Automatic annotation (TrEMBL):
SUPFAM superfamilies xref list: Metallo-dependent hydrolases
InterPro entries (UniProt xref): Amidohydro-rel, Metal_Hydrolase, Metallo-dep_Lactonases
Protein name as annotated: Amidohydrolase
Pfam families for this protein: Amidohydro_2
Domain of life per record: Bacteria
Ranges where the Amidohydrolase-related domain occurs: 2-271
GO molecular function: hydrolase activity
Family matches, as Gene3D superfamilies: Metal-dependent hydrolases (3.20.20.140)
PANTHER family recorded: AMIDOHYDROLASE (PTHR43569), AMIDOHYDROLASE-RELATED DOMAIN-CONTAINING PROTEIN (PTHR43569:SF2)
Protein family per UniProt: Belongs to the metallo-dependent hydrolases superfamily.
């Protein structure tokens, strides 16, 4: 197995902002040993560590940690894409072998169209030119904009995090369903992750079936599983709980388990290199 999306953090790190005391279930430090323990008996052979703080310190901390943790096969970091120094920073980070991509925290930016700002173009071009991938931490409001962005940057590999966080608590499917289909047709990739934490407290995991069905149908071999651990704890799930739920729902939708749980992440992030 390859876990395409998990997090580690230190509450004492400079600039740490989330989780805070309000997220009591996950408000503590998490390191590689905690991740290994959470996996239990699942045959996790590698993982992609994704930024959780919008700071350069977090990115450097993750890369240094990954150097000493063979299980961490790739890192998705953060760079201030609007900073004039971003292209140089990206070039320096790209020399770190485990740096595979970057993720601006779009869900926290009020301006839905921020990513289309011309001021970001030098940084985006640097990502493309250095062979990095773009993790799109988006909500349904961003999807039409993301399609415009993808068409503007055809050489930039893009993966949608957490199925674009559909409104699962309300059971809403549209216009998310149509927008997701358009992005899949444009060649984007997607992560089957983070859906349980979009549900309301007490909602059964099986209520996610229509969302999983649609993601499998649209993305096929470009859909990869991610635990979103330890954030999954906010839904009251353990690592193994979400794995079992995803495996059951994806199998019912006709997904190839080898591709979903290993091959897609390895291909997208080039984890063999």
């Amino acid at each position: 197995m390859i876990d395409a999306h998990m997090h580690l953090w230190s509450l004492a790190a400079p600039g740490h902002d989330w989780p805070g005391p309000a997220e009591a279930a996950i408000h503590r430090d998490y390191g590689p040993a905690d991740f290994t323990a959470a996996c239990g008996d699942l045959p996790v052979a590698g993982t992609v560590l994704v930024q959780s703080q919008p700071t350069d310190h977090d990115t450097d901390w993750m890369l240094d940690m990954a150097d000493g943790a063979p299980l961490i096969r790739g890192v998705v970091g953060w760079v201030d894409l609007a900073d004039p120094g971003a292209p140089a920073r990206i070039a320096a980070l790209a020399r770190r072998p485990k740096l595979k991509g970057l993720r601006p925290m779009l869900q926290s930016i009020a301006a839905t169209g921020w990513l289309l700002d011309p001021a970001l173009e030098p940084a985006i071009a640097a990502m493309r030119d250095h062979g990095l991938r773009f993790d799109a931490l988006v909500q349904p409001r961003h999807l039409p904009m993301l399609l415009r962005f993808a068409r503007r940057w055809p050489g930039l590999p893009i993966v949608i995090d957490h199925g674009a966080k559909p409104f699962a608590a309300a059971g809403t499917l549209d216009p998310w369903r149509e927008d997701i289909a358009a992005l899949a047709a444009a060649g984007l990739w997607c992560k089957l992750s983070g859906l349980r934490t979009e549900q309301a407290a007490g909602q059964p995991a099986d209520a996610l079936r229509p969302y999983v069905d649609h993601l499998v149908a649209c993305f096929g071999e470009r859909l990869m599983w991610g635990s979103d651990w330890p954030v999954i704890g906010l839904a009251g799930d353990r690592y193994t709980d979400w794995h079992a739920t995803a495996a059951r729902l994806a199998a019912a939708a006709g997904a190839d388990p080898d591709r979903l749980f290993a091959g897609a992440a390895s291909a997208f992030y080039d984890l063999a290199s």
